[in-house]
Amino acid sequence: MNHTKSKVICIVLLALLLTFSLTGCNNNGGNGNEEAAANEPVVIASKPHAEQYILGEMLAILLEENTDIPVTRNFGIAGGTSNLHPAMVSGEIDIYPEYTGTGWMFVLQRDLIGDSREMFEAVRDEYQDEFNITWLEPYGFNNTFTLAIPAELAEEYDLQTFSDLGKVAENLIFGAEFDFYERDDGFDALAETYNLNFKETREMDIGLKYQSIGAGEVDVINAFSTDGQISLFDLVVLEDDQGFFPTYYAATMVRTDTLEKYPEIADALGVLEGQISDGEMTEMNYQVDELNRDAADVAREFLESKGLL
């Protein structure tokens, strides 16, 4: 009788042990899923040119060094904003650096706002309302269209602004890629605004502009204000003193859902606010474009030089 009773007790204890074990396994499985979700990587993307690789690396390095958030790099997305923006909206990517003028005029299809701060606040507010995407404060540099001229010519004619150029344009040859002559905000409108009656204008492949001005075949070219080749060919960027071209201040965009999940992102990436001048971005682009340095090395060196790491 005692033997039978002991056997029954053992069976009951084994059953209880098995039940607790299964329950424990189930609980562990749930925690595992939650943990996996909590550790889901944040995807940082960029457009396919040097400046964006450098900025993307800065964002990735800042998150890796200052948070526990896992990061996936997805740099060099072909098609630029045309593919990055829908990827942000759909949640395929979480973060990428964008330009105010691109967001306002290309994505939102709004008319130009001359005041750069007003444009930033407008694009920030509309992205939040329409796409649930948050713009952090701009980095400081403005990668806009501009006009560039050899330093020696700028000194000879005492040129600092587009208006200055209008006074001596009849002595100079202007060169630009084909579509700059066809854009609504291209050569004709620019020439009318600043009275730019050049001695001659030449159309050329975009990849040959800098070689042409370096060889003295043209005297003035259109350019992006942070092109690395501006330093290589010792060119001076003139000031658009009547604000003809839109401003393209760069800033970090983050999906608001991602910010709510990882609120520490705002502080970790917000340290870049106002930290990068036009000259500093141009020099970093030069390091990558012309000296073939790795974008990650250039980005890390800059962050260290600013005391951000």
Topology:
Elements: H1 2-38, E1 42-45, H2 50-66, E2 71-74, H3 81-90, E3 95-99, H4 100-107, H5 116-131, E4 133-135, E5 145-150, H6 151-157, H7 162-168, E6 173-177, H8 187-194, E7 200-204, H9 209-214, E8 220-224, H10 229-232, E9 235-237, E10 250-255, H11 256-261, H12 264-270, H13 278-289, H14 295-305
Parallel strand pairs: 1-2, 6-7, 6-8
Antiparallel strand pairs: 3-10, 4-10, 5-8, 5-9
Helix pairs in contact: 2-14, 4-5
GO molecular function: transmembrane transporter activity
Organism: Dethiobacter alkaliphilus AHT 1
Signal peptide: 1-24
Features:
disordered N terminus; alpha/beta; ABC_Gly_betaine_transp_sub-bd; 10 strands; D-Maltodextrin-Binding Protein, domain 2; 3-stranded antiparallel beta sheet; 14 helices; single chain; 309 residues; globular; 15% strand; 5-stranded mixed beta sheet; 2 domains; 50% helix; Substrate-binding region of ABC-type glycine betaine transport system; transmembrane transporter activity
How would you explain this protein's 3D organization?
This protein has 309 residues and is an alpha/beta fold. It folds into two domains: 162 residues, D-Maltodextrin-Binding Protein, domain 2 (3-Layer(aba) Sandwich), CATH 3.40.190.10; 94 residues, D-Maltodextrin-Binding Protein, domain 2 (3-Layer(aba) Sandwich). Helices cover 50% and strands 15% of the residues. It contains 14 helices and ten strands. It has a five-stranded mixed sheet. A three-stranded antiparallel sheet has the order 3-10-4, with helices on both faces. Helix 2 packs across helix 14 and helix 4 packs across helix 5. The longest helix is centred in the first third of the chain and has 37 residues. The chain starts with a helix and ends with a helix. The N terminus is likely disordered.
